[in-house]
Amino acid sequence: MARSEKEKMLAGELYHAGDPEIQADAEATKAWLVRYNASLALAPAERRQLLIERLAEVGSDAVIRPPFFCDYGTNIALGANVFLNFNCIILDVVRVTIGEGTQIGPMVQILTADHPRDPAIRRSGLEFGRPISIGRNVWIGGGALIMPGVTVGDDAIIGAGSVVTRDVAPGATVVGNPARPVRGAAAG
């Protein structure tokens, strides 16, 4: 039996984003985002309930300050005490896992969505995603970009404005574009 475009998307295979099932999920997320992004004045418990309604996992005391943007939400798992500041973007065509105690600055982008390097395949409208895993107690400075397929180890620090194109070792501090380890830096 042929797999659906959504099944292909979730498996990290080439898929057509215009598929009706995928588009219906995206529309549902847009409606949820309108509600969530209007929730800044609500009590934290009310905002938490909205997160639980849409995200795959929401650990205790996890906070996302609106406005927030994502593709689906249903592929995002937040550990306990995770904090995302204003204007974060998560393109979650596949799984994004953020470990407990991780602090994420404003305007950080976590991007699992990717595109074929072959122009003929790209012209056909196919795309794919690569999962991102961010460990525990990570600190990501404002405006950083985490690119598709990256794993960030526990206790790492990512400098503000960095573009992370490769895995980050546990306890490492990385800065720049592309992000590179800072020699002799202590994680904290």
TrEMBL record:
PROSITE patterns reported in the protein's UniProt record: HEXAPEP_TRANSFERASES (PS00101)
MF (Gene Ontology): acetyltransferase activity; O-acyltransferase activity
One cellular-component annotation, GO: cytosol
Origin: domain of life: Bacteria
Transmembrane segments annotated in the record for this chain: none
Keyword vocabulary terms for this entry: Acyltransferase, Nodulation, Repeat, Transferase
Keyword Repeat: yes
All residue ranges annotated as the Maltose/galactoside acetyltransferase domain in the record: 6-60
Function: Acetyltransferase implicated in the O-acetylation of Nod factors.
Family: Belongs to the transferase hexapeptide repeat family.
Record PANTHER family: ACETYLTRANSFERASE C18B11.09C-RELATED, SIALIC ACID SYNTHASE-RELATED
Annotated protein name in UniProt: Nodulation protein L
Organism annotation: Methylobacterium soli
